Fold:
Amino acid sequence: MLLKLLTLADFRNWGKLEWQPAPGLNVITGANAEGKTNLLEAIFFLASGKSFRTHRDADLARFGSTSFAVGARIERATGELSLVLRWDRSRGKTLTLDRTEHPRLADLFGQVTAVCFSPEDLSLIKGPPEVRRHALNLLLLQISRPYYYHLREYNRILAQRNAHLKKLPPTASSELALSVWDEELARHGAELTIRRRAAVAELARWADERHRELSGGYELGISYNPSIPLTDPPTLEGAQTAFLQKLDRNRREELRRGITLSGPQRDEINFTIGGRDLRSYGSQGEQRTAALAWKLAELEFIRSHTGEMPLLLLDDVFSELDPRRQACLMREARRGSQTFLTSAEEIKLTIFPAAASWHVAQGELKPL
Ligand SMILES: Nc1ncnc2c1ncn2[C@@H]1O[C@H](COP(=O)(O)OP(=O)(O)OP(=O)(O)O)[C@@H](O)[C@H]1O
Ligand SMILES: [Mg+2]
Structure:
């Protein structure tokens, strides 16, 4: 996949931008706070409909502005496509594909795929479980619209159920009232669980392979620890039944505490090296290496599911890696079709020379 043209209007600190990046490696340098990360954030926004830095779309509009737009021309194996994702305060997000407005945002997913690696991704290992669930969601919705659908429906029903849990007194009639959500919650929850389990198993294999290259032979273990117990072999029906049983068992306790106690919103993903939990025992460097291995696994995951390499966005990560890890990362980048690498300093790339170098200053992007 190639990003042939990127256009921005009032996105973060960018006023107007029309940019034609090169195929291969694009290196973007510039002083701090000039807008390098914002540029990658815009590209990622086209892939996932979300920012990797904020949950609020309004944050992405340039200060003082009530709307923004990110547009692109994409070249894929199936042909070229132009898309524009616009946001304004009254309408929210609207999607235009090849000049036709699409009422459903879901039509965005799968059009552009991207993997982003930034220093904040250390929180993938160190942070709370929701960081890992969020990363998995952002990955899976890029390759699977059904996943997006089940996630949206699950979250909608969960929010309704939780709102009622907070209001209802802990009585038998409340227990009955709650059960109206069970079927649907369990159906979508089981879908998410089964899909996440399969994805983590695949990602774990690739991440371990990459991790051994990055670290000189150390095994990385990644396991999915679902809130809903799975049968062996895992089945949708099995997960649904197990979820319903849990809901049944927890109902009284849930009414007392005012929150749904089981389901994909409670899933965890565990990282280990040599069997030891990386979150509690890993050094900063080990955690960073594991996060990088996960990201490289995401590349393979997207490639294997779509048949095309995603865009690779590397935000300010190069200088923090040692030469071995830098070399490994660049070998991976080279297998891809297009990489965007930002840095505040000049960087020396011996393995994979840049196809184009760019400089960001004062709201403009210029070739070096
Ligand atoms: N909604 C917004 N409107 C205008 N400016 C914004 C908005 N959001 C963030 N900014 C500003 O954009 C500037 C550039 O941010 P960005 O994170 O892209 O910098 P950067 O070039 O990656 O810097 P660094 O090298 O420090 O990582 C920051 O000064 C930030 O305050
Ligand atoms: Mg930055």
About this structure: The first strand starts at residue 2 and ends at 11. Residues 182-215 form the longest helix (34 residues). The mean pLDDT is 95.
